[in-house]
Design brief:
This protein is an alpha+beta fold and about 130 residues long. The protein has a domain of about 80 residues: Beta Barrel (Lipocalin), CATH 2.40.128.50. The protein is built from 2 helices and 8 strands; from the N terminus they run H-H-E-E-E-E-E-E-E-E.
Length: about 130
Amino acid sequence: MKKIIVFVFMLVGLTTAASAQTTPTDSTVNQILGRYKFAEGSPVAEVTVVLENGVLMMNSAAGSSTLEKSGEDVYVITQFQGTAKFTRNDSKVVTGVTILAMGYELVGTKEPASTKATAFRIAAKPVLTVK
Protein backbone atom coordinates (compact mmCIF):
# COMPACT_ATOMS: atom_id res chain seq x y z
CA MET A 1 0.00 0.00 0.00
CA LYS A 2 2.85 2.38 0.86
CA LYS A 3 4.43 1.73 -2.54
CA ILE A 4 1.23 2.71 -4.32
CA ILE A 5 0.96 5.97 -2.37
CA VAL A 6 4.61 6.83 -3.06
CA PHE A 7 4.11 5.99 -6.74
CA VAL A 8 1.05 8.28 -6.96
CA PHE A 9 2.96 11.16 -5.34
CA MET A 10 5.88 10.66 -7.72
CA LEU A 11 3.53 10.61 -10.72
CA VAL A 12 1.85 13.83 -9.60
CA GLY A 13 5.25 15.45 -9.03
CA LEU A 14 6.54 14.47 -12.47
CA THR A 15 3.37 15.72 -14.16
CA THR A 16 3.61 19.04 -12.33
CA ALA A 17 7.31 19.43 -13.22
CA ALA A 18 6.66 18.69 -16.90
CA SER A 19 3.82 21.19 -16.98
CA ALA A 20 6.00 23.88 -15.40
CA GLN A 21 8.70 23.36 -18.04
CA THR A 22 6.37 23.83 -21.00
CA THR A 23 4.38 26.76 -19.60
CA PRO A 24 6.25 30.06 -19.48
CA THR A 25 6.04 31.61 -16.04
CA ASP A 26 7.35 34.99 -17.15
CA SER A 27 4.50 37.50 -17.01
CA THR A 28 6.10 39.65 -19.73
CA VAL A 29 5.74 36.94 -22.39
CA ASN A 30 2.13 37.82 -23.18
CA GLN A 31 3.02 41.50 -23.28
CA ILE A 32 5.65 41.10 -26.00
CA LEU A 33 3.55 38.87 -28.27
CA GLY A 34 2.50 40.60 -31.47
CA ARG A 35 3.66 42.11 -34.76
CA TYR A 36 6.47 44.63 -35.05
CA LYS A 37 6.96 46.76 -38.19
CA PHE A 38 10.30 48.18 -39.35
CA ALA A 39 11.17 51.17 -41.52
CA GLU A 40 10.88 50.83 -45.27
CA GLY A 41 14.11 49.48 -46.75
CA SER A 42 14.96 47.37 -43.68
CA PRO A 43 16.26 43.83 -44.32
CA VAL A 44 12.90 42.58 -42.99
CA ALA A 45 9.62 44.48 -43.09
CA GLU A 46 8.18 42.94 -39.93
CA VAL A 47 8.55 40.24 -37.30
CA THR A 48 5.95 38.48 -35.24
CA VAL A 49 6.52 37.21 -31.73
CA VAL A 50 4.39 34.17 -30.93
CA LEU A 51 4.15 31.39 -28.40
CA GLU A 52 4.28 27.99 -30.12
CA ASN A 53 3.86 24.91 -27.93
CA GLY A 54 5.15 26.82 -24.92
CA VAL A 55 8.22 28.16 -26.79
CA LEU A 56 8.67 31.86 -27.48
CA MET A 57 9.39 32.35 -31.20
CA MET A 58 10.21 35.26 -33.49
CA ASN A 59 9.17 34.80 -37.13
CA SER A 60 10.07 36.92 -40.17
CA ALA A 61 10.67 36.61 -43.91
CA ALA A 62 14.34 35.91 -43.04
CA GLY A 63 13.41 32.89 -40.92
CA SER A 64 12.31 31.83 -37.46
CA SER A 65 14.14 31.67 -34.17
CA THR A 66 13.50 30.81 -30.57
CA LEU A 67 13.84 33.63 -28.05
CA GLU A 68 15.58 33.00 -24.76
CA LYS A 69 15.30 35.54 -21.96
CA SER A 70 18.62 37.06 -20.94
CA GLY A 71 17.47 40.10 -18.97
CA GLU A 72 14.50 42.33 -18.31
CA ASP A 73 12.81 42.79 -21.71
CA VAL A 74 15.96 41.42 -23.43
CA TYR A 75 15.94 38.13 -25.34
CA VAL A 76 18.58 36.20 -27.29
CA ILE A 77 17.58 35.43 -30.89
CA THR A 78 19.24 32.02 -30.91
CA GLN A 79 19.27 31.16 -34.63
CA PHE A 80 20.61 34.59 -35.67
CA GLN A 81 23.12 35.17 -32.83
CA GLY A 82 21.43 38.42 -31.91
CA THR A 83 19.35 40.15 -29.28
CA ALA A 84 15.90 41.66 -29.15
CA LYS A 85 15.28 44.42 -26.60
CA PHE A 86 11.64 45.31 -26.16
CA THR A 87 10.84 48.93 -25.32
CA ARG A 88 8.03 50.23 -23.13
CA ASN A 89 6.29 53.57 -22.70
CA ASP A 90 5.73 55.40 -19.40
CA SER A 91 2.71 53.18 -18.73
CA LYS A 92 4.92 50.06 -19.02
CA VAL A 93 3.18 48.95 -22.23
CA VAL A 94 5.42 47.30 -24.85
CA THR A 95 5.65 49.70 -27.81
CA GLY A 96 8.57 48.43 -29.87
CA VAL A 97 11.68 46.32 -30.29
CA THR A 98 15.31 46.92 -31.15
CA ILE A 99 17.00 43.96 -32.81
CA LEU A 100 20.77 43.62 -33.05
CA ALA A 101 21.61 40.65 -35.27
CA MET A 102 24.04 39.75 -38.03
CA GLY A 103 25.47 43.27 -38.22
CA TYR A 104 22.09 45.02 -38.42
CA GLU A 105 20.25 47.22 -35.98
CA LEU A 106 16.52 47.20 -36.62
CA VAL A 107 14.12 49.40 -34.68
CA GLY A 108 10.47 48.42 -34.95
CA THR A 109 7.18 49.60 -33.55
CA LYS A 110 4.54 47.25 -32.21
CA GLU A 111 1.32 47.12 -34.15
CA PRO A 112 -1.81 47.55 -32.05
CA ALA A 113 -3.82 44.42 -31.38
CA SER A 114 -6.26 43.60 -34.13
CA THR A 115 -9.66 45.15 -33.64
CA LYS A 116 -11.41 43.33 -36.45
CA ALA A 117 -15.13 43.11 -36.03
CA THR A 118 -16.39 39.62 -35.48
CA ALA A 119 -18.81 38.53 -38.14
CA PHE A 120 -21.88 36.72 -37.01
CA ARG A 121 -23.64 34.21 -39.18
CA ILE A 122 -27.34 33.85 -38.76
CA ALA A 123 -28.44 30.32 -39.43
CA ALA A 124 -31.67 29.79 -41.27
CA LYS A 125 -34.30 27.89 -39.40
CA PRO A 126 -35.17 24.55 -40.94
CA VAL A 127 -38.50 24.41 -42.69
CA LEU A 128 -40.68 21.47 -41.90
CA THR A 129 -42.85 20.16 -44.68
CA VAL A 130 -45.87 18.05 -44.00
CA LYS A 131 -47.02 15.63 -46.66
